[in-house]
Amino acid sequence: MVRVRVEALEEYAKAHNVPIMLPDGIAFLTDYMKEHQIKNVLEIGSAIGYSAIKMALVDPQVHVTTIERDQERYNLACQNIRAFGLENQITIFHADAFDVELTKQYDLIFIDAAKSQYIKFFEKFKKNLKEDGTIISDNLEFHGLVHTKEKIESRNVRQLVRKINAYITFLEENEEFTTTFFPIGDGIGISQRKKQS
Ligand code: SAM
């Protein structure tokens, strides 16, 4: 087993433009897991395995299932998971999340993949969330662009911002889930099922 430091993953991501969670975002996520005794996590979007590794390191009883569609990132994630000796705590699938059918129920579902598909990820995987579980979504501020008053030049970025805004509205108006938004990292949403009265 090769010993690596998480800082090495952060440096790799920076050098190779791999979008991983920002430091305060990942600290918020792992603190949330500790505070709520989260043991089973489903992550959509592994990239190089950074957030899955950080979550698995919270506690030896934590298990993370994570999905990555990009071959190169999946290979690197597998390599990193092995280097940390976390093969027993992290199950990684090389697939498009929309092709993955899971029957297990999770305490936490972390959505951190294609921003344009967030509503679809939420709708597809909510059946895998335990009754009192939590769905956490990252990048809801999208580098500050979601709240900017300035005109966004790039058409692609404008479209993404529109999609993220549509997701925020979807969460705000959701009849099944209540969401709290936190201006932490790149913007985090915490969604939980409404209690039946
Ligand atoms: N969670 C990672 C972290 O913080 O270390 C970062 C994930 S990165 C923001 C998003 C990843 O989601 C990319 O590597 C991308 O290839 C992957 N992705 C996007 N859409 C996907 C899909 N439909 N199924 C699986 N992976 C997807």
Features:
globular; 197 residues; Rossmann fold; single chain
Describe the structure.
- The chain is an alpha/beta fold and 197 residues long.
- The protein has one domain (6-191): Rossmann fold, CATH 3.40.50.150.
- It contains 6 helices and 7 strands.
- The protein has helices at 6-15, 23-35, 50-56, 71-83, 118-125, 155-172, and strands at residues 40-44, 63-68, 90-94, 106-111, 129-137, 177-182, 188-193.
- A 7-stranded mixed beta sheet has the order 3-2-1-4-5-7-6, sandwiched between helices.
- Strand 1 (40-44), helix 3 (50-56) and strand 2 (63-68) form a beta-alpha-beta unit.
- The model has no long low-confidence stretch (mean pLDDT 92).
- The site of S-adenosylmethionine has 19 residues, from helix 3 and strand 2.
Number of domains: 1
Shape: globular
CATH homologous superfamily heading: Vaccinia Virus protein VP39
Distance between the termini: 52 Å
- Give me the secondary-structure category: alpha/beta
